[in-house]
Every structure is written in C-alpha cells, then in structure tokens.
Amino acid sequence: MALTTYVxxxxxxxxxxxxxDDNVFVLGEDVGIYGGAFKVTHxxxxxxxxxxxxxxxISESAIIGAAIGAAMMGLRxxxxxxxxxxxxxxxxxxxNFAAKCRYRWGAGIPIVVRAPSGGGIHGGPFHSQxxxxxxxxxxxxxxxxxxxxxxxxxxxxAAIRDADPVxxxxxxxxxRRIKEELPTGDFVVPIGKAALRRKGSDISVITYGAMVYxxxxxxKELEKEGIDIEVLDLRSLLPFDRxxxxxxxxxxxxxxxxxxxxxxxxxxxxxxxxxxxEAFDYxxxxxxxxxxxxxxxxxxxxxxxxxxxxxxxxxxxxxELHAY
Amino acid sequence: MNAKTVDPHTLGTGQxxxxxxxxxxxxxxxxxxxxxxxxxRIERKLYRQGKIVGGxxxxxxxxxxxxxxxxxxxxxDVVCPSHxxxxxxxxxxxxxxxxxxxxxxxxxxxxxxxxxxxHMGSLEHNLVxxxxxxxxxxxxxxxxxxxxxxxxxDRVVVCSFGDGATSRGDWHEGLNMASVMKxxxxxxxxxxxxxYSTPLExxxxxxxxxxxxxxxxxxxxxVDGNDVLAVWDASQRAITYARGxxxxxxxxxxxxxxxxxxxxxxxxxxxxxxxDYWETRDPIRRLERTLIQQNALTDAGIAxxxxxxxxxxxxxxxxxxxxxxxxxEDCLRDVYFEE
Amino acid sequence: xxxxxxxxxxxxxxxxxxxxxxxxxKPGDKIERDEALFxxxxxxxxxxxxxxxxxxxxxxxxxxGQTVQINTVVAIIxxxxxxASAASPAAKTETKPTPAATVAAPARTDAAPVSDxxxxxxxxxxxxxxxxxxxxxxxxxxxxxxxxxxxxxxxILSYIENSGRSGSGTAKKSPLPTPAPMTFSGETERxxxxxxxxxxxxxxxxxxxxxxxxxxxxxxxxxxxMQAREKLKAEFETSGVHLTITPFFVQAVVRALRKxxxxxxxxxxxSIVYKRGINIGIAVSLDGGLIVPVVKNAAEKNLQxxxxxxxxxxxxxxxxxxxxxxxxxxxxxxxNPGVYGALTGTPIINQPQVAIMGMGGIKKRAVVIxxxxxxxxxxxxxxxxxxxxxxxALADQFMADIQKQLETWQG
Lengths: 324, 339, 411
Hints:
Largest sheet of chain A: 7 strands, mixed
Distance between the termini of chain A: 45 Å
Strand order of the largest sheet of chain A: 3-2-4-5-7-6-12
Helix content of chain A: 25-40%
CATH class of the largest domain in chain A: Alpha Beta
Strand order of the largest sheet of chain B: 1-2-3-7-6
Structural class of chain A: alpha/beta
CATH topology of the largest domain in chain A: Rossmann fold
Largest interface: A-B, 42 and 43 residues
Mean pLDDT of chain B: 93
Distance between the termini of chain B: 61 Å
Structural class of chain B: alpha/beta
Number of strands of chain B: 7
Number of helices of chain A: 12
Order of helices and strands of chain B: HHEHHHEHEEEHEHEHHH
Strand content of chain A: 15-25%
Oligomer: heterotrimer
CATH superfamily of the largest domain in chain A: Thiamin diphosphate (ThDP)-binding fold, Pyr/PP domains
Low-confidence stretches of chain B: 1-13
Helix content of chain B: 40-55%
Radius of gyration of chain B: 19 Å
Number of domains of chain B: 1
C-alpha cells in the first residue's frame, strides 16, 4: 500500500485498464506529450505509444464524436475535456448522439468523458464550473463525481467497463490535496452507490465532490457543540443511491443538501423532491440546501470564497436546523 | 435563367472514368429504381393517406449518390448515411418491410418506434444512424475510421452529408481531425443546392464544397451527381485511396433536390426553370438510356424490373400495415444497457 | 368488405388542420387505391391526396372549402353494396379538442387548513409518531421546545417515554413550559448551552415551580466560634485536618435538624417523608456551574470528622474526582453566597429537600451589646424553606436554635 494522491489514483486507473484491455485508449488535448494539463496522463504515452494515447486538435465536439465512432466499433475510448467548462462545446455530441444511440437503434456507446471540474483554484468562470446537471438531465448518460482517491480509481474503472456513456467529473481542487493508502490489485467502485463517510444521529449532510471535506470539517466542529452530523457521499449522480439517501433521512430526520454547484437546477433540488415524496413522514424539520449562488464563478479570491460553500455555512445551517 | 446552374461536363478530373461491369450496372439501376419507387410511395401515397406521421424526407433526383458510392463496399466497411441516402440502407441489406414499418412507427421498424423516418441504423449491417443535428456524423465517421487504423484493419467509412451540413462546426472539426489522423474516410457531399429554403449562395462563400478539401489537407473532387457511373468511379478511387492508408478524401456530387425539403414543403422558393432543367438530367433515365444504347437492357426489361419492384414494395407495405405498434411502455426500455 | 375511413392527413409536424379544397370524385364513383381522391390546402402546402383503399366512394363528410382538424374522417369508402352507415351524423365530424381549449382541471384541494387558534406547529415526523402512539397532539400544546414553540421529535418521544410511568409526585417529569421567545433589536451572537448549564437551568426552574419558597434571615455573632477555631486549628492540623469556619455551621445545622426533623424531610404527594439519616450537601462552585457533594451521616461525625469530610469532598469536587454516590441523597443543603462578599442570599431549594441555608460573608460590624457599641464579626444566615411543609414560625425557631448554638458554642 502506498500513499496515493487523487490525481495519481486516476492515472493508475487509466493505466491499469489500458493494460487489462487493449481496446481502451485515451484521446484529448495535450494528453500525450505533455501528459495532460493536470498531468493526469503523465507517462502514458511512453508506456502505451501514440496509437493509444492521442493528442487531438482543439475540437471538443470532434473529440467526443470520434470517441463515439470508435466505441461503436468496439473500442473503449477515454476522452478528456481539458476543463469541464469546455464540455459545453461537445454538448450536442454527448446529449444527442452518445446518449441516444442505444435507445434509438440498440447501439451501445461505451465512452468515458473525463472532465476536471470545480472551483477554489482562482480559475474564474471558465475554469471552475460544475456542469454536471446538464448531463444528469440527459437520460442515457451516467454521471459520477468521486471525492476520494479510492473512489477516483474505482469509479474510473467502473466507468471504463460500463456499456453506456459515462461522464466522469474529477474535482481539480482535490487532485493533490487528497492522499490515501490505496490497496494493490484490482478494485471497482460500483456506479450508483453512495458511501457513508461519517455516522451521526442528529442531522444528515448529503453531498459529493470536494464538499465532502467541507461537511466532514464542519462535523468535527459541531461535535464539540453536541450536534452529531452524518455525512453521506453520493459518489454517483446518475444513477444515484436512492436507498442510501432515504435511509439516512429516516435515521436522523433532518437533512442538509450540500453541493458546490449553483442553486437553481442543482442536484439538491432533485434530492429534496425525492425526500419529500418518499420520506415526508420522517422529517422533523425543513429540508435545507447549501449551494453556490446563481452566478457564474467569480475570479477574485474574496468573491470566490463568498461564492463557494464554506464550513461556516454548514455550521450556521446545522445549528439552525438542530434548534428547529 | 437567373438561378445558378452547374454544368458538370466542364468539371471532373478530365480523365475518362472507369466503368463497373454490366452486372454491377444493372444492380445499380435496380437499386436506384427501388429507391425512387419506395420514396414515391412513402411521400406521395402513405404520407398523404395519414399512414405515416411525422416528417418525410426523400432524395428524389439524387439516387445516384448513395447508390453509386455504396454499391461496391465490403460488408465490413461502414456507412454513415444522411436523410436522402435511402439507397445506402437498401444496399447494406435493410429490408423494405423494416423501412416502411419504421416510417409507420411500428414495432417491427428499424428503431422499434423509438425514432422516425430515416433515423435508422444497424450495427449488424454496419449502418450508423444519423441524428437530426446534421454534421454530427462527420466526427463520428472519423472515429470509426480511427478504430480501423488502430486495429490495423483495411476497412473504410463512407460518410454522406448535404451542402447545408457543411456549414456546421462539427463538419469542419470532423474533416480536420480525420485528415490530421489520416482516417480511412470517404466524405461524400450530396450538393443538391438547397438546404430547406436556403440556396447555395446563402449557405457558403466558396463556389464548391470541394474547394474546402485542400484547406483540410485532403484530396477533393467534383463529380456529376446525376451520372451514377461517374459517382461510382470517383467513389471507387476514393475508397481505394482510403483503404490504402492514405487518409480521407472529399467527393462533391453536384445534383439537384427535385422536391421540397420535406413532404410538407412544396419548394415554392425554387425557380421552376431549375426543376425543368434538372428533370432532363434524371439519373435513372440517364442510366437506362446508357444501358439500352449498349444493348445491356431493353424497354421490356425495364418494365419488367419496374413491375417486380412494385410487387416487392406492395408486399412490404401490406405486411408493414398489419404490423403492431409498440407497447406504450416500451418507451421506457433501452435507455441503458439491459441484461 | 369493410368500410374504410378516409382522413385528413397531417402534412407537416406543426400542422393541425387542413382545408378540403376540392373533391375529385363524387359519392357513388368507383375509386382505386392510390388514385387521387381530393385536394387539400394547409399553411405549408397544397396537396393531392390519394385514396387509401379501392372501392366506391360511399359518403362525403366534409364539404369543399371546409377546414377540419387532422385525422378528421372526411369520407367513407365502401364496397358499393351498402347504404351510408347509419352512424354518421354531423357529430362524426366532431374534432378532438386542441390542448389549448381544455380547461385546466381545478387543483385538488389539500385538507382544510387548521385555523390559527388550533394550529399546532410541528413536523411530519411528529404527526406520524403521534398517530402511531394514539396521542392527541393537543396534550403537547404550548409545550414544544422547538423554535417558536414547535413540538419536536424529542418532545413527543419524551412524552411517550414518560406517559408510561406512575403519575405521582417527584418521579414525574412534567414537560417544562416554554418561555416566550427572546427578542432583541440589536446585534447578538448565539452560543449553545453546555450540558451542565442546561441541567442547572432545568433544576432551578423545576425547584421554583415545586416549592413555595420563603426566605428568612438571621444575624449571627461569630466571635465565639472564631475563637474556638483559633484554639483548635493547631490540634486538628496534627491530624492532618485543616479547620475552617464551615464545620461549625454544619455541626449547628445537624443538631438543629435533630430537633426539628421536619426540616430534614421531603414531600411525596400528600405524605411527609421523614428521613433517618442527616446528609448535608455543601455547594461547591466550579467554573461554569456548581456541584453539591454530600456529607453522609453528618450526625455521626464530630467536628473534626465533619471538617475532614468537608475538606475531602471539596478537594475531590475541584479535581473532578467525585463519585455519583457523593452527590446523591442529601437531606439539607448549605450554600455560600458570601464567598465573593455578598451580605447574604436567597438560595433556591435543592429538590427534593425542603430547606437550604445560605452563609453570607463574615464582616466586622459595630453592634449594640448592653447598650454599648462593640465590634463583632457578624454573618447573615439565610434560610429558604418550602412553605408547603414548613411555616415561618418553625423556620425561625430552627434558625434561632442555630444562632444560639453558634453564639454559645462550647464543643
């Protein structure tokens, strides 16, 4: 076992899958010689050669389109969007081509689209987005958002092995900040299963991505005040773990939905509806949301800090909800 | 005539084109005639009888393009057709009944009712279903070609599209990528000179779609899209080029759209003179004349072929009409892989 | 041969109606399948429509110039034998209503909203629990501990837990009444209460609500016991016991309680519970609160024994080494409001006891003795007592006895 960063875990996942299956290959901008803008694919060109690690022109739509065509012929492409923000250039190919082939004419499209998402790195509006909901809203796709190095590796393997298109949002803030001991050998994290990060009795915080750590930090603080927080990490948004969500709400009877994405149309809205529909009689307080405000991601550090949900937000809302 | 016309005799490579053997030419004629008759039935009869709903898009007058480019492909080559390439579907082996049932939205249609008209595909027949966002298929074709390269296979992709689709970003990204990566793709443009109501001069600033080929580093050629044997010849050369690992090329077939954009469009914006002019250049009658001149066919033979085609289509329609609609709840199936 | 209905086709996805412009056949004419039958005009196109079947045009249902919705039956084709089908009144041309024309169904109403007086703010969870346990939420009306008096999960769960117990006196834990929510128009900062503070708050309120508190005050001349202390200090020190002034008071209280046992008792419903043992609780101030360790069986201890016990408990209280046994079963409590210089205090009774004595600060004062001014060390003792059980006269007698003991101390 060795201490592995989140970014290294992703690289390991790609490398191991490319070893396991000759059909797996990587394409994207600057992924080969440069090793990727975040060095995720560092060393893969040397290891697997330029047939399987392809530097493409700046053509997000064609990158995805080519991945679709290759997948149709039985290959397993991992297409990288340099920043999740650029995935919008390929929106049509993803949502109208890849997502609908199986439904329309029985052709499975097993592509993985890797997208570095999230803020907190002073990236501004085009290098910090969390665009997952555009794809959660598209039937035929799968959407995953790992928060730990273990899950980053395990979910990537699951995505590569999945018969359907998977959009894999890796949170760039976590790349080098998260270090974990990872087991050797092959392991896969199933898509659609949440993970309970902290057991608690007073309030459930349901979240994903980098916000998992905000929730855990807040939980440590709240423990001192006698408020016991449970933290559920969704890991997958489409499909999401409905059972785990309902189970935690039924246990604590109070819930906070936390995500870095903006408010309107964010995943918290969907969860709030599901909880209200299916666990109404278990609620001892209103369902609370903590999200970014409905604006583009601002650049200047004090503004970005205001924009991103912080530990203090979780403390404040948890205290209010606890007293309700 | 105040509309732009193109005289194909002044274009082309200047070389005398090669010809396919007679059997192939007869096969070519047969397929063009089936396409013509099938599309007539779909557009002028079934649709107007309310037996087909939704949109109907036919390729009347452009039959030579799909037939000429696809007739001599291998079974393991892949075709990415567009909405006026009915010939591609028939040549690759899709049945008349499946196609008619598809238009009728029946359970036995190519997409089991999930999608309409020409939005058909079949991996089994190496036919890729296009989507309404025309131009999206170009990068997909590049990716298919890439997979052949990666596996060291000498298969090729024929990717067909219209003049309008060449304005889309995906078209340019796809051509560029196919060329950079040297993918074995034959890009076939059906330039029928109208995209819905938009004539060519409002669609592009260059005179020919093929003028763009050098911009993307690939060979380009212009052919008479109403001369099916010329289309065949250019296609064969491009297919051989791709199969030999030299990369993609672009064939622009000059033709004319002899209908409205769709069955509900009467093309009142097209000057009648253009219809009249291009009517005289009908590709089917042209091949018939050629074959008769070479004693490969007689009028009686043509009539017999026509009769046989009618019968085939009548039978297919009769079966498809009786086919059931899908169960309404089937709309929930196959969003994802199901065991 | 069955009849075939001829319909107005949909010529284009957004088209929903068409005008029949011309009939090319008339009723009675033979018609072949696919033969042109009529002409239509729509927003997009004019079209010739072929017949869907062969036969005889039996009946025309839509006239030339008429505009009808798509899928409307415009004609019937029969086999020529039959008459017009009986069921073809004008109603047949009735068209399907367009979505826009449909009046939206009135929204289903929820259960009638509760009027404000009846409104009991609570939550779905609480309502479910109430239903499952057959509780009428009215029993918790006004007793919610949530924001604005909401009845919370804990409220109803406590109620459920306690409603099973015997409904007598001190064992019953009645839910606390809620004070009005605090309002303040300036800036505030919230901090949650510690468990100890919450516990003290509850206990104090409960005591106030249980006992009929009255306080009486006595001034004691401490000169005698202070002299005694000076004399005995060194001797006690050799036994390792530090002698303060407190044991003198505890001793006096113990002796007074022997004389007035009712002050050592408790109330249980309608009964007076006299206790054999005398266990004196001594209140100790700790940071953030107080604790009351108990000198058990104080009557069996002499002065030195009392001093030793008091010191030991105080030490263990401050070093947090008290056991649960050390703080239970007190029968009388002594507290020390004078430790920070207060003249005296009005302590709150330590339930389920019926009296508590407060010791003020010892101060030298000018007093009148035999019509002359003298300087004496004076302490003000206060006794808060439960007037349910102890009348003022008895309380004063009790205190007078203590006064006498201390002012005439001999051992």
